[in-house]
Design brief:
about 525 residues, alpha/beta, TIM Barrel, Trefoil (Acidic Fibroblast Growth Factor, subunit A), 2 domains, eight-stranded parallel barrel, four-stranded antiparallel β-sheet, 25 strands, disordered N terminus
């Protein structure tokens, strides 16, 4: 338990800095009211299934809010259902749980949050938002579904305008109500139009019509909030905006959102049996083609936020591990805003089972502990602002090992993989140049197969020259074919070993992730 508390105290420093709300956008960045960059490092909290945010049967609300902040998250993407605001808004929480025979939920809420029971579902949501705000945690309200239920599949009736439960006017009415309701709640900093458009009805022309109506309506009713817009195909595809941009004037409030999982685009099996170098390059290119282009140039881009990604934190499967290693490398390299799925560790009811576990949850099933501390540590670097775009400070490099979540730290004449909060800072001028330790004349040198990499003043030989290995995004190789390598089961030191490369490049070989080091650009260290 003391280890968990120590971890939480370390991460709490990441979320303690305040910002001046409301937020706006400036090119591809989100900024506060003073013009300073804000990076949203968020956790998803489901509130759309029973119209009550999950977990209030497990811990006092104040404890949950404190824990979220302590884990280093500065915002929550809080989901809701359209019907909550158009049909069921005045339902009493206690009566609703009792009527639906959610006995375990009812007993737990009575024990931990008895004041919630006599509230309407609207006011219960507001109580959650206020509790988060008291801890400095901002909220993005996400319209997840229309009919309250688990999401998502192509035939669930919630996927696209005109589906069984997805009435466009009902949806617009809900957006209007939510926008007006929270206009004087400054910690509600954003609203998303809709989660994961999908299904056979998907149509670009219809998408343009209603997305423009919805975005303009929110901005009219509440000009303070950021407006998050998702694309088609489960929040994967916004490529059609290359030919026809949205006709919006949101006064620097527009943010695009995307989702990504190992199973996205039916790719789960490929993460299992294909080289991670090949898969990661393929997925990164796919993201750039379908949405990454929206970041654009310095003047005409817009923020792109990854509002859902995650893995099964109980199984730690090889495909999930490869996928999330790739995604964290990409996130760090591009310094995007993001939201992990999920924070919640359980559901009141899912698939007919009360108190169902959520293995993707950052909380465990008791909502009192971090489910997977090792994965939590992997988020440490990407929770930080790495690029301050309006600063005059030069860009340096952080040596990030995404498989472990560690960063390269100079210790004596060697390099150890350690805490990304107090990492060493490096410089690197591209292929064939040395990797230099900032503030010294020293650089990295390969001492031989299986030996720790060393710091040396001699920086002109092959052993001190580094470039990317063939057909690899992140393996750093010297002139002798040795790559930086870290395996925490062997040592806390960064070694050099023969580069694990394949020909052809899609053939899977184990261990490539151990040799991934991303030299992340940063001017904030």
């Amino acid at each position: 338990m003391s280890f968990i508390i120590a971890i939480l105290l370390i991460f709490s420093s990441l979320s303690s800095s305040s910002c001046a709300v409301p937020l706006s956008t400036r090119s591809r960045w989100i900024v506060d009211d003073s013009g300073k960059r804000v990076k949203l490092a968020c956790v998803n909290w489901a509130g759309h299934i029973q119209m009550l945010p999950e977990g209030l049967n497990k811990q006092p609300l104040s404890n949950i809010a404190k824990q979220i902040s302590s884990m280093g998250f500065n915002c929550v993407r809080l989901t809701y259902a359209t019907y909550m605001f158009t049909r069921h808004g005045h339902l009493n929480v206690g009566e609703y749980l009792e009527h639906n025979k959610l006995t375990l939920a009812l007993e737990g809420v009575k024990k931990h949050n008895p004041n919630i029971l006599n509230l309407s579902v609207w006011d219960a949501q507001k109580a959650v938002i206020d509790a988060l705000g008291s801890q400095g945690v901002m909220v993005i309200l996400d319209c997840h579904v229309s009919k309250p239920k688990w999401c998502c599949n192509d035939n669930d009736g919630n996927g696209f305008f005109g589906d069984q439960y997805f009435d466009p006017q009902d949806w617009l009415n809900a957006l209007s109500t939510v926008a007006k309701r929270y206009i004087n709640t400054p910690m509600v900093i954003g609203m998303s139009l809709r989660n994961e458009f999908r299904g056979r009805r998907q149509d670009q022309n219809v998408w343009y019509t209603y997305v423009e109506q919805g975005a303009n309506l929110i901005h009219k009713k509440n000009p303070n909030v950021l407006i998050l817009i998702s694309g088609l195909g489960y929040d994967i595809d916004l490529s059609f905006l290359k030919k026809k941009p949205l006709n919006l004037n949101l006064h620097n409030k527009l943010v695009y959102e995307i989702h990504r999982y190992a199973f996205s685009q039916a790719q789960y099996g490929f993460w299992s049996n294909t080289s991670i170098n090949y898969m990661c390059q393929k997925v990164a290119q796919e993201i750039e083609a379908k949405s990454g282009f929206l970041r654009g140039g310095r003047q005409n881009g817009a923020p792109l936020m990854l509002t859902e990604f995650g893995i099964d934190l109980d199984q730690n499967s090889q495909p999930d591990t490869s996928f999330v290693t790739c995604l964290l490398a990409w996130l760090a390299e591009n310094d995007l805003d993001w939201a992990i799925w999920s924070g919640h560790g359980s559901y009141y009811l899912r698939d007919g089972k009360q108190d169902a576990d959520e293995s993707y949850g950052m909380f465990d099933g008791t909502w009192s502990k971090v489910r997977n501390p090792g994965f939590h540590t992997k988020l440490q670097l990407v929770q930080q602002i790495l690029q301050a775009p309006f600063s005059t400070q030069p860009m340096d490099r952080v040596m990030y090992h995404p498989l472990s979540g560690s960063c390269g730290m100079a210790q004596g004449n060697e390099v150890q993989a350690g805490d990304c909060l107090k990492t060493s800072v490096w410089s690197f001028n591209g292929d064939g140049s040395p990797i230099r330790l900032k503030g010294s004349n020293q650089c990295l040198k390969a001492a031989g197969e299986g030996s720790p990499v060393v710091l040396t003043d001699y920086c002109s030989g092959e052993s001190s020259s580094w470039k990317l290995a063939p057909k690899s995004m992140y393996q750093l190789s010297n002139g002798n074919g040795l790559c930086l390598h870290f395996d925490s089961s062997i040592s806390n030191k960064v070694l050099t070993k023969k580069c694990i490369v394949t020909d052809p490049d899609y053939v899977k070989l184990p261990g490539q992730e151990s040799q991934w080091f991303v030299l992340v650009q940063s001017n904030t260290k």
